[in-house]
Specification:
By secondary structure, the protein is of the alpha+beta class. It is 39% helix and 13% strand. The strands form eleven sheets. It has a seven-stranded antiparallel β-sheet with strand order 25-24-23-22-28-27-26. Strands 39-38-37-36-42-41-40 form a seven-stranded antiparallel β-sheet, covered by helices on one side. Strands 3-2-6-5-4 form a five-stranded antiparallel β-sheet. The termini are far apart.
């Protein structure tokens, strides 16, 4: 029972305290006068009676009533019902005069003087109660007012006394009738359950005022602890709105400031920092404007204003949407039917009171859905004496799958929810509607989702219950209370409210209290029961099944992997491991892992071997790395017992546990995680405590109840709480003590656990001090170290911690502090006694210290462990004579920008990254290792390149594995288009990496060319690295002598400083024999006497150099072949030859970079040559290098002219020449020289009109004819090398016709052809006027210089071998290829060459005189010869071409290849590579014209920079002689072991296997090739892009041979293996042409194998091939009509067909045969990247490459075949194929497309047939036979009976064979 009202107060206006503006109220009387003991009188009531301030009014207002709410210090709410009416006041004059000075009051005072009686002051009757019965209060106060106003004859004192002594039951649905003794009667109904709020209509009204969305905003704001302010001009509405908001929040209780009506004097409360719900009268609206973080709801205007800085988290979807829909169904039922054509007439909303309850029902459902399953996350940690309960928030969010949800997270962290747990967590208590809903109705709500009718029905049911709770007796509402007469407040002479007699009232009160004390206490027993838990969360959610479906397979994988680990099947486990790590992203897999691991723990311990331990650790780390700090899914919780269970023995007595390897996760430093874990364990122990005692007592009962599930901790707790009052005091004490010690022992256990996980293995590193609180996320590097465990892990923290020099004690202290904080918190919460707590604090430092000591031992031992799991370093195969300079350093080979190996978008398993080692040998840098991806772990990955080809080395830092730290690495780029991006393993010390770099640098740039591999091969690397002093001196002497003498001899007119050529002294730079500075002094002035040039014996090597040697040089053989002059030993020469071989340069005195023998015009004397040579750069005067055998035009080459030479050459002859006469005479001699060349041509004067250059261009070049027009390409200026390359190779429009086809300029119109065209550099020929009298014409063109080639090549390398995948898609491969301009340079070279070829072919000679005559000149001259002369397209001829034009004529290989230290600064310029690329382009367009294959070109490209052979070392013949290289090979043939010349090597290889041979070679005599040079016709050479990871570059043939493949020869497959065995061939891994050779190579190889088996000496492959070709030709002749098989060998194909090459390639990719006919893949060895050649029809290809007796066509011939039903007979060519087991037919013998196939497997029988209608007439009827298959019957007819019989027999035998 409770008092209805505690105090009655009379509050009036206080005239004495009129402040500035507002007056004040004062309490006139209060009853009872002394406070109740249980309920002191609330202060400040007078403020709340007039919230907007006490003021006098000029007229009487009607009485008002509202209820204010005050909250006292114990957060008890007091309801103050204020009834206010107005009384007239007299204003005493003197006072007002005295106070007249106060400005604001003056007017009011003035009016008071005039009408003294007409001011009215408010007076309030106030009831203070702890019960919220607003209506009763309104009636009671109204009654008192009525008695006073109407002057009823009832004593006010009695009424008030009765009011204050009236008691009513608090709850239980009782009904009480009360009377205040004035003839009145009121019925009070108490709610059935006081835990449910009473709202009457307030909630419905709130929704009416604000609308659904706004109220939901307010609701969420209140739950997430925002500040809420209501504005209204009605006080009652403010109270109602606030009450409604609280009612909506049920079952959560609002625990912050709650003031439904805030008085004006207290407005500053609004700026409090804590959340609140406050109501304020709207007249103060302006004062609320500057509140920045308050949500303001204006009830009168219906708006809710959320400030910008406030973010209100709304309900999670789909709940938000469902709530909205439900609310609109309740509030606006018409909405549903608004669109119906015939809306039902009856629909209307429920009454306000019912609507109110329905809205609350919606919110009640909402909370039930939000909090469903919450009881499963409660931890009960003490049962006696008081239950202590904690909520496991993280687990709740995790299981609900709402970890990301802002709203729920905030609600669970809020105060309201904490109160909810305290109040509702208890397992044994009275329960209410919410408990039932959340326990029993959740499933129903889940089922009804989306069904509006059912949802509405449920809402109505709940609303009924809520309504019933408020109005248990709906019928009885009989109130009888007198009301005052209408308008009584306006009576003029109203006497003031009388002074009440305190005594009377007090006496009534005392009497009542005395009576109460004597009355027996009414004890209402509370109905307590066990609170139902409801279904567990998992059962409710079922995660929509999707997770379950897809994870079953993954879980299987996880289980398998774990069982493999424990069964020690490590290889299997390793294969599954990546899949397991990927699966770990899913929660189910992580749970599965923890469960599986639990199964392998026996008696809390599982000892593993190192590898198992490592696997388990890696899985745990992977599992934990996705855990957040709060561990919502309980993964860390499940692993916590495991990390102390799994261990491995490091040495006797020392065990390392798993926890030392999984400390790197943020979850361990989160104190909330530890608390939740602790509470969980405590709960389990307490449960066990009571379960055990229960089992002892009730064993008999137990057996009966066995089938029931195990009791949950909450159930046990509720049982214990029920029994608690019945227990004896001792028993109670005993239980309390048991529980307390349980908690205490757990606390000790956890102190240990925490020290395990928080103390790092290496405690000297303060890894732990990650941040102040030890709990921040900064340094989570979820890494684990594959090595036994990380010394290194810890290092990275030194810098972060900020305590660099801290002792280990620092770690200990911080851990101790952390554990102490934890222990304090949990022990005080769970009621551990103080003594115990103190004991714990003493223990913790010892625990930590002890653990540190054990860790030190473990750390020491773990460092000694051999690193596990690192693959054995594989040793690379080396060449003969190649030696290791540095043993392998363990590295990871990282993927670069090429996706192939990384298994990127192309697919396939990732071969990179691979782990292995990098080796440095005298010849190469080699990486050899295995992929880290275990699915391809058995493969070997090799990537290497010659050291000499290294172009760039840079340090990088790189993360080698996802789970490791950033390591230092190197990126090495090579000009053989290879990139090694390596990251050093952590075991490689950084100084070893430095040593590696130093060695690399030393080997890359030896001091002298003698340091290169080609020379040092076979020496020990030490000698190679540092030449010994003994050897040094003699060589130095000869060298310096030669240098000085020859320098004097040659420098003469050269403008290039000596530096360019000197092989710099190659011993130590410091030796002072030949300081560099002197070089300039040596250069000699021009006037030097020429006599020094006479040959003398100063050159040491010249003793060797007899003339016969010179004659043997390749050039001479070639000159003889071309008829350019012979050189007999007596040096006589026949005068009738136009050219002679001059020996003027035999001592290399005139031009150091030319060969010793040169072709010059017969008429020119040697001494003239000396003089002419001065005009040209580098003294490279024009010499003849080739003559066209048909037109006798010659091709000459020279360096560019020096300036004065140009001027002299082209000045008109009679003009007086300024300048020294010497220059003049030279230019005359020069002119004579050119004239001599012209005279050598037999028909130079023959003027055959159309041969002028302009005629030629208009005919050939501007027509887009058979070959690419230079002009056409020029229009695409972006490709042009220089802007004008295209349509203007020169300043004038050289390329002939303008677009309209008329010749361009008059100078081209002259009708005679120039006999000699000089192709020169435009920049040098500026201002040169063509002279009509001369027979030569200058063609100035623009060319690119070496700098541009270098730059272009750099870009090309970056495009083909990018260092890292490009992030920017616009910088794709093709774009960067175009930017490199490489193809446009090739286009340019081809274009010039084709121009020269045309000129020579039309009979004009050409002198190519560009730059210094040794780069572009060489490219052009060689290409011209290659295009014009078929001889150079053979293997022998190409060698000769390279030796003659590149080696003899001094292309500076060493300098351009930067082969020595001297060339380091100049960098690599791939002039020769560019030439080979041009050859490759021509080869692609004319595949039948070259005897050598594409592989040959790649081989040369690779080895001309590899320094494996000496052929391409040094810059000229002179230098080679000087080193004694040129002729040494002749006499002293070294053993086979080391080939010094690349040509010998190629010859030897070519004899063995057809790798350099092009099977398509079928030359036409004298064919001049004119390739297209447009960029669209050029292809990127696959040499730049392909890669063979299985064996490294395939150009070192011996190495490839050593591959462990089942092969006798490198290109042989093991024939013994069953042929059907399938091979998987990876495009970037396997050398495809070797694994799957093309048909011809395969046949040749099988032939050889067969011969071997038969014991014959195998025939050379070349002989076999030649025989086959010969027989093929004869066969073709005999047959008269050519079979498809002779297609290749024919040389009679139409020209067009040949020039484009036999491109059968385009037809498709389907065939399994690798027969691509571009010769690239046709040779066995080629590292192919061509398409696997699918062809028009496999059968034709079979037949194309057959021996003369074709095995595939077992039998063939012509037969008539009857078509299908109603079709005529037709003659067809039939082929019976035994191998394919089929009968094919073609239209005719020549046809390559098969028209149909009859599968012999389907043939049932073959019978003689009969002729049918339309059969051929002449044939004997016995020649017919039928073939019956499962599908149909075929009718055949042969020419005669014998043939028919033969066919039948053949087919029969085929069938029987099968």
């Amino acid at each position: 029972m409770a008092r209805l009202a505690d105090y009655f107060v009379l509050v009036g206006y206080d005239p004495g305290k009129r402040g500035s503006g507002d007056g004040q109220g004062q309490i006139l009387q209060r009853f009872p006068e002394k406070d109740w003991e249980d309920n002191p009188f609330p202060q400040g009531i007078e403020l709340f009676c007039q919230p907007s301030g006490w003021q006098l009014f000029p007229e009487r207002n009607p009485p008002t009533f509202f209820v204010a709410v005050l909250t006292d210090i114990n957060s008890e709410r007091h309801y103050c019902a204020c009834f206010t009416f107005w009384e007239a006041v007299e204003s005493p004059q003197p006072q007002s005069h005295a106070r007249n000075g106060e400005g604001e009051e003056e007017e009011e005072e003035a009016s008071a003087l005039v009408q003294p009686a007409q001011l009215f002051a408010p007076k309030s009757l106030v009831l203070v109660s702890r019960l919220d019965h607003a209506e009763v209060f309104r009636n009671s106060l109204g009654l008192i007012y009525t008695i006073y106003v109407d002057g009823l004859s009832v004593s006010l004192e009695n009424v008030i006394g009765n009011l204050l002594t009236c008691t009513i039951p608090i709850t239980g649905g009782a009904q009480r009738t009360i009377s205040l003794g004035a003839g009145d009667r009121q019925v009070i109904q108490t709610p059935i359950n006081d835990s449910l709020p009473v709202s009457s209509c307030s909630v419905a009204l709130l929704f009416r005022q604000l609308g659904i969305t706004n109220v939901l905003f307010l609701f969420c704001a209140a739950l997430t602890e925002h500040k809420i302010l209501f504005l209204s001009s009605s006080y009652q509405r403010l109270t109602d709105a606030c009450r409604a908001l609280l009612a909506l929040m049920f079952p959560l209780k609002y625990s912050f400031t709650y003031v439904p009506i805030l008085p004006a004097q207290l407005l500053e409360v609004l700026s409090t920092p804590t959340p609140f719900i406050i109501g304020v009268h709207s007249i103060f609206q302006s004062e609320t404007q500057e509140l920045l973080d308050v949500v303001i709801a204006d009830l009168d205007g219906g708006t809710v204003n959320v400030p910008e800085c406030v973010h209100i988290s709304l309900l999670p979807e789909p709940l938000l949407q469902q709530t909205r829909e439900a609310l609109s169904m309740v509030l606006d039922p018409e909405l549903e039917v608004a669109d119906l054509a015939f809306p039902p007439s009856t629909i209307s909303a429920s009454s306000l009171k019912m609507q109110d309850k329905e809205i609350r029902a919606v919110f009640l459902r909402l909370f039930a859905q939000l909090l469903q399953g919450y009881r499963w996350c409660l931890h009960i940690i003490r049962i006696h004496p008081e239950p202590v309960i904690r909520f496991h928030k993280a687990a709740f969010l995790g299981q609900r799958g709402l970890t990301e949800d802002d709203f729920l997270t905030k609600v669970l962290e809020g105060m309201a929810f904490a109160g909810f747990v305290t109040e509702r967590g208890a397992p044994y208590r009275p329960i209410d509607l919410f408990d039932e809903l959340v326990a029993y109705e959740v499933k129903r709500m889940k089922a009804e989702e989306g069904n509006k009718q059912k949802i509405l029905r449920h809402i109505k049911e709940l609303a009924e219950k809520l309504y019933k709770n408020e109005n248990p007796y709906p019928a009885v509402t009989m109130h009888k209370v007198q009301k005052p007469t209408e308008g009584c407040h306006l009576r003029l002479h109203q006497k003031p409210f009388p002074h009440l007699d305190e005594g009377t009232v007090q006496w009534i009160i005392d009497q009542a209290t005395a009576k109460l004390q004597t009355a027996p206490p009414a004890v209402k027993a509370e109905k307590k029961c066990m609170v139902p838990s409801g279904p567990p969360i998992a059962a409710i959610l079922e995660r929509n099944g999707n997770a379950l479906a897809n994870s079953a397979r993954r879980l299987e994988v996880v289980r398998n992997c774990i069982s493999y680990v424990f069964e020690n099947k490590m290889l299997e486990a390793k294969k599954l491991f990546p899949a397991v790590l990927r699966a770990m992203k899913g929660r189910a897999a992580r749970h599965c892992l923890t469960q599986e691991l639990h199964l392998h723990v026996q008696q809390n311990r599982a000892v593993l071997d190192h590898q198992q331990f490592d696997f388990v650790i890696r899985m745990m780390n992977c599992c934990l790395q996705d855990c957040t700090a709060t561990d919502e899914h309980g993964i860390a919780a499940a692993l916590l017992p495991l990390v102390t269970a799994f261990c491995r023995k490091l040495s006797p007595g020392i065990t390392q546990f798993a926890y030392s390897c999984v400390q790197e996760h943020v979850v361990w430093t989160n104190i909330q995680f530890w608390e939740a874990m602790f509470y969980c364990d405590v709960q389990n122990h307490i449960r066990a405590l009571y379960l055990d005692s229960a089992e002892e007592n009730h064993t008999e009962q137990e057996s009966a109840e066995e089938p029931q599930e195990a009791k949950s901790a909450l159930e046990i707790a509720s049982e214990q709480l029920r029994l608690w009052p019945t227990m004896s005091r001792e028993k109670q004490q005993e239980l309390i003590q048991k529980e307390e010690s349980t908690v205490f022992s757990q606390a000790i256990h956890y102190a240990n656990r925490m020290s395990y996980l928080l103390l790092p293995l290496d405690t000297s590193k303060n890894r732990l001090l990650r941040s102040s609180g030890l709990g921040d996320v900064e340094s989570v590097s979820n890494s684990f170290v594959t090595n036994s465990i990380a010394g290194s892990v810890a290092e990275s923290y030194d810098t972060e911690s900020g305590f660099e020099d801290a002792e280990s004690s620092d770690v200990a202290n911080s851990v101790v502090r952390f554990i102490n904080r934890f222990v304090d918190k949990v022990c005080t919460e769970s009621g551990v006694t103080n003594e115990h707590l103190k004991g714990l604090h003493v223990m913790i430092p010892d625990i930590v210290q002890m653990h540190i000591e054990t860790l030190d031992a473990v750390h020491r031992e773990s460092k000694r462990l051999p690193p596990i799991q690192k693959p054995k370093l594989l040793q690379p195969n080396l060449l003969l004579g190649e030696e290791c300079v540095m043993e392998g350093l363990r590295v990871y080979l990282m993927p670069d920008g090429r996706e192939e190996g990384a298994g990127g978008s192309i697919g396939g398993p990732p071969l990179l990254p691979a782990e292995g080692a990098v080796f440095l040998t005298t010849y190469r840098i080699i990486f050899k290792g295995t992929p880290t991806d275990p699915l391809v772990g058995e493969q070997v990955v090799i990537r290497s390149f010659p050291i000499a080809s290294l172009t760039k080395e840079k340090k990088i830092s790189i993360q080698a594995q996802a789970d490791q730290f950033i390591q230092e690495g190197l990126q090495l780029r090579s000009c053989t288009f290879q990139l090694l991006k390596i990251a050093f393993d952590e075991e490689v010390a950084s100084d070893s990496a430095e040593i590696f770099r130093k060695h690399l640098h030393k080997l890359r740039y030896p001091q002298h060319v003698r340091g290169t591999f080609a020379f040092t091969v076979g020496q020990s690397p030490k000698q190679a690295m540092q030449p010994k002093a003994k050897e040094k001196n003699p060589s130095l002497r000869t060298l310096s002598k030669n240098l000085v003498k020859n320098a004097k001899r040659t420098i003469g007119r050269q403008y290039v400083t000596r530096k360019k050529y000197t092989p710099p002294a190659w011993e130590q730079r410091g030796s002072q024999h030949f300081p560099e500075d002197n070089e300039d002094e040596i250069s000699v002035s021009e006037e030097l006497d020429r006599s020094t040039l006479t040959p003398s014996s100063t050159m040491r090597p010249s003793e060797k150099m007899t003339m016969t040697h010179v004659v043997e040089r390749a050039c001479c053989r070639d000159y003889q072949r071309l008829g350019l002059g012979t050189l007999s030993s007596s040096l006589t020469r026949s005068k009738n030859e136009p050219f002679r071989i001059s020996t003027v340069n035999r001592m290399y005195a005139i031009c150091r970079s030319y060969p010793g023998l040169l072709i010059v015009p017969q008429s020119i004397q040697d001494n003239t040559i000396q003089r002419i040579s001065r005009c040209y750069r580098q003294s490279r005067f024009p010499v003849v290098c080739w003559r066209n055998s048909r037109t006798k035009a010659v091709l000459l080459r020279s360096g560019g002219l020096h300036g004065k030479g140009v001027v002299g050459l082209f000045k008109s002859q009679n003009a007086p020449t300024p300048g020294p006469s010497q220059a003049d005479s030279t230019s005359l001699e020069q002119e004579k020289y050119l004239q001599a060349v012209i005279n050598s041509m037999p028909h130079y004067s023959d003027a055959s009109g159309r041969n002028t250059l302009s005629g030629f261009t208009s005919a050939h070049m501007s027509s887009a004819g058979k070959w690419g027009s230079i002009r056409a390409s020029g229009r695409m200026s972006s490709y042009a090398l220089n802007v004008e390359i295209g349509s203007r190779l020169a300043g004038k429009d050289l390329l002939g016709t303008q677009h309209n086809g008329t010749p361009a300029e008059p100078s081209f119109l002259r009708q005679h052809r120039a006999s000699l065209y000089i192709i020169g550099d435009k920049s040098q020929l500026k201002g040169v006027k063509p002279d009509p009298l001369q027979h030569w014409e200058v063609v100035p063109i623009e060319v690119f210089d070496v700098r541009q080639v270098k730059a272009s090549f750099k870009k090309l390398m970056k495009a083909c071998v990018p260092g890292c995948p490009s992030s920017d898609p616009s910088v794709a491969y093709l774009r960067s290829l175009e930017d490199s301009e490489w193809l446009s340079q090739i286009h340019k070279i081809l274009q010039i060459s084709v121009l020269v070829v045309e000129l020579l072919d039309t009979g004009s000679s050409v002198l190519v005189s560009l730059e210094d005559g040794w780069d572009i000149t060489t490219q052009v001259v060689s290409l011209v010869q290659l295009l014009s002369d078929p001889y150079y397209r053979t293997l022998e001829g190409f060698r000769l071409l390279v030796e003659k034009e590149w080696l003899s004529f001094g292309h500076r290989f060493s300098h351009r290849g930067a082969q020595t230290l001297a060339g380091q600064s100049s960098g690599f310029a791939p002039i020769f590579l560019q030439f080979l690329d041009c050859v490759h382009q021509i080869h692609l367009q004319f595949p039948m014209e070259f005897e050598f294959s594409q592989y040959y070109l790649k081989f040369l490209s690779y080895h001309y920079i590899s320094n494996r052979f000496r052929t391409f070392l040094l810059d000229s013949d002179y230098e080679r002689i000087e080193l004694g290289l040129l002729y040494e090979e002749k006499g002293e043939r070294k053993g086979q072991q080391v080939s010094k010349s690349i040509w010998d090597y190629i010859d030897r290889l070519n004899k063995k296997a057809p790798i350099f041979f092009n099977y398509l070679y079928a030359p036409e005599d004298g064919e001049v090739l004119r390739p297209y040079s447009n960029i669209s016709n050029l292809k990127v050479w696959d040499y730049y892009t392909e890669e063979t990871l299985s064996e490294g570059p395939p150009y070192d043939w011996e190495l490839a041979q050593g591959q462990p493949e089942p092969a006798e020869e490198p290109d042989r497959q093991d024939t013994a293996a069953p042929q059907s065995k399938r091979r998987i061939i990876w495009p970037c891994y396997d050398n495809r042409s070797r694994v799957e050779p093309d048909a011809i190579s395969k046949l040749l190889e099988e032939l050889q194998n067969l011969e071997m088996e038969l014991g014959q000496v195998p025939e050379r492959w070349k002989d076999t091939w030649d025989k086959v070709k010969a027989s093929q030709r004869t066969e073709g002749r005999q047959e008269g009509n050519r079979t498809p098989s002779s297609l290749l060998m024919s040389s009679g194909l139409s020209h067009h067909r040949r020039s484009l090459g036999v491109y059968l390639q385009e037809s498709g990719v389907g065939s399994t045969l690798n027969l691509s006919l571009d010769s690239d893949t046709s040779s066995t060895s080629t590292p192919s990247s061509g398409k696997p050649g699918g062809r028009r029809s496999t059968s034709t290809l079979y037949s194309q490459f057959q021996m003369s007796e074709s095995e595939n066509r077992s039998y063939e011939g012509s037969l008539y075949k009857k078509g299908a039903f109603m079709k005529p007979w037709k003659s067809r060519w039939f082929v019976l194929d035994k191998t394919k087991h089929q009968l094919r037919y073609y239209d005719s013998r020549m046809d390559t497309e098969c028209k149909g196939v009859i599968d012999l497997a389907e043939v049932e029988s073959i019978t003689p047939g009969t002729p049918t209608m339309g059969a051929p007439k002449t044939v004997d009827e016995k020649a017919f036979f039928d073939l019956k298959t499962t599908k149909r019957v075929y009718n055949f007819c042969a020419q005669d009976v014998q043939l028919a019989q033969q066919w039948i027999d053949r087919i029969q035998s085929c069938l029987s064979d099968a």
